[in-house]
Structures are given as structure tokens and as C-alpha cells.
Design brief:
With 225 residues, the protein is an alpha+beta fold. It has 1 helix and 15 strands. A hairpin with a 2-residue loop joins strand 13 and strand 14. It is elongated.
Length: 225
């Protein structure tokens, strides 16, 4: 709570004719019902540039200067409140709306996003507006071999790898981004088949050793009998 007041409107023209303002100074406590916590501002001594002014201290540093502007400024020469074209008005009749031509976009919902080669993420909205939202950053390490492999194509920073160096894609030696692209397999089928055959033959050889050992033990037991 900073203050409270009363705006008086002219019954005929509907414009502001007088403004009264009380500042919440909480001189005793923070009880807004206690009149001792309120200070009435005077138009003769408590105006700045023709407006009632507050100096709230929200963060405990230098107080802010807040001018209360309802579109009406007090003129000491005319000893009256002077209203500008955007002044607050009030009429003793039901409210009406005035149609204004729109110069911007209407309300829209996010329909899709796209990623550019520079890492920029752009959102397309249902009202036809296209807005840059975020940017994808890439990172590199001084020692790639020092990364700790977590599994699932994930790696973790270590002291050997150093801290990550982040920047935009395509800058500072970083790679690029290829949107709407499908990465092909980087596995050499011939090499993998050779490894599979080698592993299979090794398994067969080991199984033969087990079979021979079992036969030798069986012969040994038969000799004893």
C-alpha cells in the first residue's frame, strides 16, 4: 500500500476537476485502518511537476520517484487541474466502446517452430506472426577424450576435459546445425560383419573347449570305475 485518494469528475463534461491524495506513511505500524499512518498531501506544497509524487523504497537503496498521473496536471497559475487529451473521464451513463482500427496482430497461438542453421528457433503463430524465440548454443571442450561417457550418447564434463566453451553454431570452431535433416548411419557394415563373424567363431572355439573338457572328465570317471 502506497496511498489512496479521491478523483472528482465534472458532472457535465466528465473530466477531472479535483484530485485528493493521502500517502501511506505507516508512522505507527502497517495498519491501514489507523489514521495516524496516513498523511494528506497538499496541492500547494506536495506536488512535483504538477503531480502528487511518492518515493517508495522497495529494495532498501535509493528511493524511487513515482509521479501519479491520471492525465491531469495541477497548474499553480490557474489554481486548477488541467486535463490533457488522454485524461481519465467518467460520465453518468452506461459505458460504451469505440471501434479502433488495428495496426498490429491479433491474439494467436503457437502452431509450429523451426530451427535455422545459426541455431535460432522461430515460432509461427496462428495470426500470421513469426517471432524469434530462443537460440540453440553449441559447446566444445579443450580435451574431448577427457569427457566421461555416461551412456546413451551422453558425456559429462571432467577436470581432464576442461570447462565447456559455448557459442553460436558455426563460430569459434563449432559445428553447424542442419535443420530438417536426417543423419544417416555412420556404421561400416563390412567391418561390423567381420567383427560379428570373429566373435561367433571365438564363441564356437570356446564352446568346443568346454565340450572336450567335459569328455575328458567323463573318461576319467569311467577309468576309475
Amino acid at each position: 500500500m502506497l496511498g489512496r485518494g479521491t478523483i472528482t469528475f465534472n458532472a457535465a463534461s466528465g473530466v477531472i476537476s479535483d484530485i485528493g491524495f493521502d500517502e501511506f506513511t505507516h508512522a505507527v505500524d502497517y495498519d491501514i485502518s489507523d489514521p495516524l499512518n496516513w498523511t494528506t498531501k497538499s496541492e500547494a506544497t506536495d506536488l512535483t511537476n504538477g503531480y502528487f509524487t511518492l518515493a517508495p523504497d522497495f529494495l532498501g537503496g535509493s528511493p524511487l520517484t513515482v509521479e501519479i498521473d491520471f492525465g491531469s496536471v495541477y497548474s499553480s497559475g490557474a489554481v486548477a487541474w488541467l486535463n490533457d487529451s488522454l485524461s481519465t473521464t467518467q460520465f453518468a451513463s452506461s459505458s460504451t466502446t469505440i471501434f479502433q482500427s488495428a495496426t498490429g496482430y491479433g491474439a494467436g497461438d503457437l502452431q509450429s517452430v523451426s530451427v535455422g542453421t545459426d541455431g535460432g528457433i522461430t515460432g509461427q503463430y496462428s495470426n500470421g506472426e513469426v517471432i524469434p524465440l530462443y537460440r540453440v548454443a553449441l559447446a566444445k571442450f579443450q580435451n574431448m577424450q577427457g569427457l566421461y561417457k555416461e551412456g546413451g550418447n551422453l558425456f559429462r564434463e571432467t577436470r581432464l576435459s576442461g570447462v565447456p566453451i559455448t557459442a553460436r553454431p558455426g563460430t569459434n570452431g563449432l559445428g553447424g546445425i542442419s535443420p530438417n535433416s536426417l543423419e544417416q548411419s555412420n556404421v561400416d557394415i563390412a567391418t561390423e560383419f567381420v567383427k560379428m563373424i570373429t566373435t561367433q567363431r571365438g564363441f564356437q572355439a570356446n564352446s568346443k573347449i568346454i565340450t572336450v573338457t567335459d569328455q575328458m572328465l567323463a573318461e576319467l570317471i569311467n577309468l576309475k570305475r
